[in-house]
Amino acid sequence: MRLRFIFGDQDFTATLEDNPSAHDLVSILPLDLTIDDYSTNEKIAYLPRKLTEEGSGRFGNEATGDLCYYAPWGNLAMFHGPYRWSRGLIRLGRLDQGPAPLLTRGEHPLRVEMLS
């Protein structure tokens, strides 16, 4: 499964993992959200409802370009810098073209949809 993200002048895709949280995200698409900077290494967007945490747990191989869900806050987290797994973080997939689109700073309307 692949998603398309559009914000500002950025248009990029992500390939999802085969896990319950990623499937739950797909079930609520398409979405119009707001994306904004958080900390120095990620952009976040709050979802309209929380996703399932079924099957979640610690993962390794953290990398820039990861698309994650942070369960305690109910938001997507897209990493453009190094990060470490923390409790409540679930990897949903990875950005296909890497993290460069996330370097556009500021708050923007974000469209998330399935790529057909």
Automatic annotation (TrEMBL):
Ranges for domain Cyclophilin-like = 6-105
Which InterPro entries has this protein been placed in?
Cyclophilin-like (IPR041183), Cyclophilin-like_dom_sf (IPR029000)
A Pfam short name = Cyclophil_like2
Q: What is this protein called?
A: Cyclophilin-like domain-containing protein
